[in-house]
Amino acid sequence: MPLSVEYADLSLAQQVLERQSSQHLANMRSFLKQWGDYSDGGEDAGLLMMAFNPVNQEVVRIGDEVLGLLEDAHGGAADHMGQTLESYANADQQIHAALASVTEMLGGIRAPVQ
User: Fold this and answer.
1) Contact 41, 53 (CB under 8 A)
2) Distant-in-sequence, close-in-space partners of 96: CB < 8 Å, separation ≥ 6
3) CB 49 within 8 A of CB 94
4) Separation of alpha carbons 89 and 95, rounded Å
5) Distance (Å, whole) CA 25 – CA 81
6) Which helix (H) or strand (E) is 106 found in, with range?
7) What would the pLDDT profile of 50-97 be if each residue is shown by its tens digit?
8) Other C-beta atoms within 10 Å of 51: how many?
């Protein structure tokens, strides 16, 4: 009976986290900076909107900071997922080696690692 372990789901999760960090959240930050701050509108933005300009700039600044933290968190999670995959693979290889040696001692045939 061959011993095989599927790591596809963990690998896909790592890829999603990497994409979220490097692409999606970076694009969200760019979008927020471009469209969230209306201070460049000048008087065309209207007097009422210009009165809220300091609040708007603070909201955009905080939003950018939060998105930066999310980028870091997703990147860190992706790194840890990679470490987890590596740990699982190493543990599986050690277990396979131990089971294979016992199988050979009992007269069986060593199954290949897949």
Assistant:
1) no
2) 3, 111, 113
3) no
4) 10
5) 19
6) none
7) 888 899 999 999 999 999 999 999 999 999 999 999 998 898 889 888
8) 10
